Amino acid sequence: MALYQRLFTHMWRAMLVMALVFGVFTSAVASDYVVKMKRRSGVYVLPCEVNGVKRDFIFDTGAANTSLSQEFVNELLAKKRLLQTDFTGAIQTRNASGTVDNNTTVNIRSLKVGNRMIYNLRAIIAVGQKAPLLLGLNAIDLLGEWTMKKDLLVLHDYNNPVIEQPVITEPSNEILFEDMEQEVGNSQVAAPSTDEVTGNATHPGIRLKAYKGDPEAQFLMGMYYIKGEGVDSNPEIGVHWLRLSAMQDFRPAQRQLAECYSQGIGVDVNEKAAEYWYQKAEENAVQSDF
Predict the structure, then answer these.
(1) Boundaries of CATH 1.25.40.10 in the chain?
(2) Ranges for all domains in the chain classified under CATH 2.40.70.10
(3) Top-tier CATH class for 33-163
(4) Which of 59, 155, 197, 200 fits 231 for a cystine, CB–CB 3.0-4.6 Å?
(5) Secondary structure (H, E, C), the chain
(6) Is domain 213-288 given the CATH code 1.25.40.10 in the classification?
């Protein structure tokens, strides 16, 4: 009986030790969260959620900022996942070709990567309608410790998955660019010297106002894209901005939109649509006379 008790005691102790070892092992494994990535065109993309909308982003450690395309921003606006107050300012950036782009900055209220939630992250809206979605260092640095194993992104420190950022409360019209400054209007802003401004950087502030809903700025953005003035010519984007302005009863935009439908500029020829917007413009002209 005594021998049986001793054997039972030793077996119990052995099982306890094994349980402790197994518990430590599973705890160590549970501390890592693995995100499966996909390889596309020589880069890795991973699933993310921006304000609750799922999209694949390029995991780009070479980009300083997280970047959204105009197309994705328009989708977020349509789904009411972005508000006019989320557009926070403007920034001029130098792209890979060396030219300068005039970008709008936007506050991403929530960005989910794996089991991480990042709040109030500033992102840049690229000037390209279908520009790639980039997860830049300003987001990657907030993920905590991580490692990459081929197509797997391993996020460590599972017990601290939520990262808080300072809440952005007030929109800013400031244009930022490196350390160079020049006088624009009554405010001191940072900007490249005149001979360096190329690409999409000759209309600072207009793009921000357009995203914040100003109909005149939206009309101007539409004309810039249609004519290729200071931006790469893209009539389709131009028509998009004109439509936003016209829907706010801005008469010049309504007349120009009618011209686009009549002549097939950025859209297919549509005489009914052209007649509709011509009529809206005339109605506004009559109302303005009273």
Answers:
(1) 213-288
(2) 33-163
(3) mainly beta
(4) 200
(5) CHHHHHHHHHHHHHHHHHHHHHHHHHHHHHCCEEEECEEECCEEEEEEEECCEEEEEEECCCCCCEEECHHHHHHHHHCCCCCHHHEEEEEEEECCCCCEEEEEEEEEEEEEECCEEEEEEEEEECCCCCCCCEECHHHHHHHCCEEEECCEEEECCCCCCEECCCCCCCCCCCEECCCCEEEECCEEEECCCHHHCCCECCCCCHHHHHHCCCHHHHHHHHHHHHHCCCCCCCHHHHHHHHHHHHCCCCHHHHHHHHHHHHHCCCCCCCHHHHHHHHHHHHHHHHHHCC
(6) yes
